[in-house]
Design goal:
Helices cover about 85% and strands about 0% of the residues. It is mainly alpha-helical. The protein is rod-shaped and about 85 Å long.
């Protein structure tokens, strides 16, 4: 085997390794997205369950009336201070 054929085979081998590494990267990125999606779904379910526990009537509300209810709550006197207090408490975790 001459040098040209040897270099060509090295190039082919390197290209295969590159393709394998790219596929591994795709697999890892897909797993990461799945984990992030799962964590978000879990968080949304937990938050919804907490809200239904505190305000049981919200279980029967559709999206827009629920949104309006939460906006109205956020506009009550003292709501801004409570929101900031809750955010600061959450930052310390």
């Amino acid at each position: 085997m001459d040098k040209k054929e040897s270099l060509l085979q090295q190039k082919i081998k390197a290209e295969k390794e590159i393709a394998q590494l790219q596929n591994q990267q795709k697999i890892i990125l897909n797993k990461q997205r799945d984990l992030e999606r799962h964590a978000r779904n879990h968080r949304l379910i937990v938050h919804g369950a907490i809200m239904e526990g505190v305000f049981p009537f919200t279980a029967s509300m559709d999206g827009e009336p629920l949104k309006a209810f939460l906006i109205d709550l956020s506009r009550l006197p003292g709501a801004r201070e409570l929101t900031e207090k809750a955010q600061n408490a959450g930052d310390g975790e």
